[in-house]
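Workshop exercise sheet. Pairs work together: one partner reads the sequence aloud, the other fills in the structure field after running the prediction. Swap roles for the next sheet.
Pair: D.N. / O.F.
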Amino acid sequence: MNNDESHSERDHKILGKQLDLYYIDETVGKGLPLFTHKGAAIRRELERFIVDEEIRRGYQHVYTPDIAKLDLYIKSGHYPHYQDSMYAPIEIDDEKFMLRPMTCPHHFQLYLRKPHSYRELPIRTAEIAKLYRYEQSGELMGLQRVRTFSLADAHIICKSEEEAVEEIGGALDLIEYVTHVFGLQYGKEYHYRLSLGDRTNTEKYYKNDEAWEKGESLLRDLLEKKKNKFVEVKNEAAFYGPKIDVQMKNANGKEDTAFTVQYDFCMPERFDLSYIGEDGSKKRAFVVHRSSIGAIERIMAFLIEHYGGAFPLWLSPVQVAILPIGEKHEKFAKEVYEKLHADGIRVEFYNENETLGKKIRAAKQQKIPYLAVVGDKEVESNTTTLEGRSGKKEILVIDNLLSKIKKEIKERK
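Structure field:
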């Protein structure tokens, strides 16, 4: 098999159709994917995984609206800097509103609802946020580049630069935990990029040379202490500060940013983000923007290609296929199906009038991790014959089958 064939077989656009995970309908619109129940199952697992892990690490998960007044994005600076990639304003009751391209202004306004003491900081506000960006038609690609996406976003309000650097380190620790769970290796499937600003480009970047120098130096020192090789790229920073990007390549070899951690010295001034210090005076806060698994759509694209569609058990849209050999085995097979389904296992019942061989081939084409076969001996002994992807077979009573599956799902191997 040559490299082109290998890449083609792993292309998430091809696998997404083959495995019936998502669909892009021209009537709905370009770059607006529709997720099937199978694709939605993967999304749901990713979202539950990261929300639970972030809450465990001290993040406060919130919900904020998908729309806000245009004034909010003028205040933040997003509208003048990102106007070309934002949807046109919507006029309602003589006011202009925008579909949000970012979450940070919403989180900052939430922070500003009341005064905060230094004792409360850092405050880590997180959200699986629905965002909208107008990507050019030629840039759209499957799930990797779309016009609406859900970002695992967070903004951390800190009381000092030192605390901000510590929080950036914590965000990178979270990202490295996530990549470990996904089975991604540093230097092979992903690497860090330090994205720098251009002091001379005042149209693209917030003007504060001293802050840029310090921010870039802080991030560079942090990466050097981690002892992972990284690259530095000019003119790739956010307009409000430098960032550490987690770069991955798709099946076609194109590199893209999957996750990001950003140091922000601009928004605290624009939004007057402050706290009451130990001496009782008002002090300027510091802000870290970060995404732990990036856009759900984009990480799905990377993972479809990384696994070649053969997801680990916990992420698989269908975890077990129940295969009765003949019509007389369907009653017991259905009982097995119902028991697994009632316990939250994503299970599919193959009761088509086909040979067992055809059922097995159909289930394997869908890359289902486990096939549970039910025939005469299984009905008689109240068992199933379970076959995994390795080809290894086990004869298990139903309770043991359930325990095995649940244990493997919990371990996320």
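Discussion prompt: The mean pLDDT is 91. What would you look at next?
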